[in-house]
Each structure stands twice: as C-alpha cells, then as structure tokens.
Amino acid sequence: MKGTKGSERREAPKTTASSGTARIAAAFASARAGKRAALMPYVTAGYPTLASLGPQLRAAGRAGADLVEVGVPFSDPLADGPVVQQAAEEALRGGYRLGELFSAIREAARDAPPLVLLTYINPVLAYGAERFLDEARDAGVTGLIVPDLPLVESGALGRAAARRDLVLVPMAAPTSTDAHLAAVAEGPGFVYGVSVTGVTGVRERLDPEVLAFADRLKAKIRRPVAIGFGISTPNQAREVGARADGVIIGSALVRAIGQRLSCPEAAVEEFVARIRQAMEPDDATPTRSVFDNRRIAAGEEGPER
After folding, report:
1. pLDDT, tens digit, for every residue of 226-235?
2. Which candidate in 66, 80, 130, 134 is catalytic?
3. What is the H or E stretch that residue 268 is in?
4. Would you call 255 helix, strand, or coil by DSSP?
5. Which class does domain 20-280 fall in?
6. Is-catalytic flag, 69?
7. Tens of pLDDT along 152-205?
8. From CA 49, how far away is CA 300, in angstroms rounded?
9. Is 209 one of the annotated active-site residues of the chain?
10. DSSP class of residue 111?
11. Catalytic annotation, pick one of 69, 130, 265, 280
12. Strand 68-71 relative to strand 246-249, pairing
C-alpha cells in the first residue's frame, strides 16, 4: 500500500473509550454472556441523507444492536444486491462525500454501538489509504470490511489498520478452502461469513446450507463468526444466531428505510427491535448490549426491550 512508509501514528481521539479491537471484542462478549448472537444491522451512509445517518445509528443502538455496519456508497458495488445498490446510487446522486461521512460518524460515534465500515477498495485508495484510516479511527470507527480486497492482497492495509487499533475484517464464503479458513482462524475482531455465493439481497427462505456453512466456520475458526447476506426476517436471524456468534442484516433493513424515507430512524429502531427480540434466548430475560451498559454508566436510561 503506497504511502504507508514513514507515516506517523497519531494519538486516538478522546471520542472513543477504547480501541476498535477492544470495542468489537466487548460487543461479542456481551452478546455471548446473554446467551445470544451479536446483532449487526447495516445502513447505507447518505441514504436517504447523510444528516440522517447519526439518528439511524443511535436508533439502532436504542433497539439493541451490538454493532452497526455502515456502507460506504460506491458506483460499482460488486457484492451488493439491487436494494443496497439503489440506496448507494441515491446517496451518490444526493451529493454524498466521503470526507463528510467521517464528520457525521464522529458526531454519532459516542452515542452509537461500535461502527464497522463496509467499503470497496477503490474509495480507500482514491482518498488515500493512510488518510482514510486516520480519519476513520479519529471518527470512532472500529473496523473495516473490504469485500473486493482478496486476503492475499490485504496484508499492507491490514497492518496499517492494526497500527491504528482498527480491525480489517476477513471474509469467508461457502467456496472457501480449508486453507483459507485456517488463514483467518485467529486474530482480532471477527470473520464475516458470506452465506451465499452471490450478492446481498432479501430472501424469503433460509437455505439449509447456510446453517451447515455456519457450523463449518465455527468448527474451524476460533474468533467470532458473523453470518450475513440474505438474512431478512426475525426467524431467519434466530436460526442463524443459534449457530453463529453474530448475525448481519442489510438489504431487509435498507428496504424498510426506503419505505419510510421521511423518518428513517423510526424505521431502523422498529426493524432492529423486532430482530433483536427474536434473537433473545427462550430461557433468559432480555439482555442489554455492551453499548446499553455504557450508556447506563454515563447516567442515561437504558432502552426498554
């Protein structure tokens, strides 16, 4: 990665209570203590407006999200299905700018769950990788997912992220070899399990192979495994959450936001709350996320479950 040599590491800002790696680990540990999987909803930055991002992130936290994945709009999103593609296109048409995204995240990060950016590699390189990572870290981001960056080519960016206490999240798919799973088995953060060989999207039924895939990852990977792509309903989230450490839901939530463009934060809060309720274990009272506990410690009232 060009530009990494000789750059100086800056001190992390006071807006984050701990490093990105520690915050991600705490989120998964808190969910595990509650006998459930961590919930990670996805929203597209700039959809319907960038000004609505902060309220959406805070709404996700109030509803019980353990982490939130924030999509960086890009004109050629190879892994995204039509719902997320359309949201990204509308954000770009609306004048979305990457520098403004970091400002919006900085304002919201203190009052939101740990934030993980999903970005394609081109925006990172166009912005300048070191600059991108610095501004992401300073804004309070905890990690990055880069779906079009192969593991064998991710070393430089991963090392640069690690120097800033950010996690570069590796991915695994049903087609991943045992050698690939061994390469990502240990490390900080989590492994993003791509449950289908295709793009993201809303699916009415959960393929039984998704559960077998989750079992395979859990058997071979020692850090948390979060499963995404095609999980759309509370029941699907519950099924996958019973086998994985985390559940990622994107297209179904973005679609719900699109149906309520005048009040996206309400759409987020209601959707995430339904998913979170379904993921609670039958033999336990509803648990709070580590984000909830942090708010309570600061003297704020925790959300009702």
Report:
1. 999 889 999 9
2. 80
3. helix 264-279
4. helix
5. alpha beta
6. yes
7. 999 999 999 999 999 999 999 999 999 999 999 999 999 999 987 544 444 566
8. 27
9. no
10. T
11. 69
12. unpaired
